[in-house]
Every structure is written in C-alpha cells, then in structure tokens.
Amino acid sequence: MHASAATSAPGDFPVEVSIVTPMHNEELCVREFHRRMSAVLRGMGISHEIILVNDGSTDKTPEIIRELSAADPNLVGVFLARNRGQCTAIYAGIRHSCGRYVVIMDGDLQHPPEEVPALIEKIREGFDLVKGMRQHRQESLVLRRIPSLIANYLMRATSKCDIHDMGGLSIIKGEVARGLKLREGQHRLIPALVYGQGGAVCEVPTSAPPRFAGKSHYGIGRSVDVLFDIVLLWFQNSYKQRPVYLFGRISLWLFLVASLIMCWLLYGKLFMDEHMGTRPPFLGAVLLYLSSLGFMSTGLILEVLVNTHDAVSGAMPFKVREIVTSRSAEAACQKGED
C-alpha cells in the first residue's frame, strides 16, 4: 500500500489533531483518559482538541465532562440527547471536529493515549488512514478474540482492504473523516470504507491493555451485527451499490435453470409422449420462474429506494442536545448539525 499525496499546508485547519472518543457510563475512566491524553498531546507540542461524546450516560460521566471542559479549553463535550450507540457517537464527534487529523479511540484506555504519537507520525507520511493493529490482546478468547479474527478475515476478503485489525484505535485525515457518512455499526468498517473510496491505508502495531476500570459494554450478540455489516459491505463492493446488479444476476440464473427444465420436459412431451403438467419438475420450473420474477422486481424496487435515499441530503442520525466548552465563540469549531 502506497501513501497518497502530502498533507495540506499548515494553517488550513484550526487545530492539528482532534481526538474523538465516545463515552457511555465511563465515570471511572474519563478523568484518567483526559489526564493521559492531554499530557501526550501537550508533550508533542501540537494544537489539539479532545472531543468527548456523552452517549446518553446515566452515571456521573456528564458531570465530569462538564467539570473538565470548564478547566480545559481544549476539551469539548458533545452531549447526545439519548443513547444511540458507539457508531453514532463517533459520527457525532467527527462531525464536530475541525482538526487536520482525527483520532478515533475508546475512552476505557484499552487504546493507550501513549500510542497516538506513533500514528500521527505515520499519517504525516501521506496516508489517508493509519490503523492500530492490537498486539497480545488480553480479552476473552471465545467472546472477543476468535470472533474478531473471523470478522477481520471476512472483512479483508470482501473489501480487499489489507488491514488485519479493522476495529480499535485509528487516525484519519480530517477531510476524509468528515466526508464519511456512517450508519449504525459502520465504525467497524471505517478502514474498508476509506480504502473503497481510493484512500491510502496502513497499520502500525499497538498494545492492547485491559480496561482501566468499569465493565465492558461489548456482548457476543454484536457478532451477529458484524456478520450483517460484512454482508452489506460485500454487497456494496461487489455490485457497486447497484441492487439490480445482484438481484438481476440471481433472477437471470433462476430463469435459465427454469428454462432448461422446461426444455427437457417439452422434449419428453414431444418425442416420448410424457405428460408435463403433473410432473414435479414442471412445478419446480414454475416456482423458479416466479422466483426469478420476484428477484428482478426486488432489484428494481431497491434501485428506486437507493436513488431516493441518495437524493436526500443533510439528514443526520443523531441529535445534539448540548455542546459544552470553555472556548470563546470565535475559537470554537462546530461542524455538526443539530
């Protein structure tokens, strides 16, 4: 994988790096995350913002974010109206970012802030996305690591994107990140989505420590959602987001099989005096013809729906209730939409 063109000239962006982190009931982690992340970025001497997206937390996470934002002008709290899930929280954070680069990471410190400088240095080589590849993961073998290995293999196979660890810590060029239109669950597919747009991607090794505190929000049920995401990714990549290509091919094959059966039955009728109407193959052929018609109709209907969806612009899958920051109005950078 080769790097793309060099990054934009200095001065094009209000800050160099935007850290986007979803927070859902992370009252035990949020202070430590902010302390370590701020220390790392100050140590690098770069302009930055830390965007903490409160995803409908019911513990003290919102109060802590307010307190930290009052003391740190580089911290922005984005409060969603209700819990919408990790992907939507990430999307809201990205839309409210203004950095040259956008770092996406969890707030439970399983993505160590100390790993971020290595990703920043790598993306400065000209890549559109740099992914952290977790090494020596200490999570459950059955519930996390094996499903992750399978999912990553399938995503590589369907997207042709040679990233071994699609989830976790990543850094993206700001204009690329803000150009993404994420739907629920697609945060797992960001490297594949960027690669599919023609972006240059790569990965660097990172550590994978256990949670700093609290309880994981991940359940084995998410593996089913990942499977559907992979199917959708295959569908989009294989058929260029044109449903009629997929359903039309299925319809054509069903029609051909049904026609071959009918030709065989007709031959038996004409030359061997075999009755057609009551034979099981005849009924099977009729069902295949009907299925062929159904698949073609489905493809055409989906084409109309996709065209309608593409014609609708500006709709966001989240509603921001409040933005908290101690920045001045002139310095604040808010690109999201309420």
Radius of gyration: 25 Å
Query: What is the string of SSEs from the N terminus onward?
Result: EHEHEHEHEHEHHEHHHE
Strand portion, in percent? 15-25%
Question: Which stretches are poorly predicted, pLDDT < 50 over at least 5 residues?
Answer: 1-11
Q: Mean pLDDT, rounded to whole units?
A: 82
Total number of beta strands: 8
- Secondary structure class reads alpha/beta
Major sheet description: 8 strands, mixed
Q: Looking across the biggest beta sheet, what order are the strands in?
A: 7-5-6-4-1-2-3-8
What gross morphology would you assign? elongated
Give the end-to-end Cα distance, rounded to a whole number of Å: 38 Å
Output the keywords:
alpha/beta; elongated; single chain; eight-stranded mixed sheet; 338 residues
Write a brief caption for the model.
The chain has 338 residues and is an alpha/beta fold. 46% of the residues lie in helices and 15% in strands.
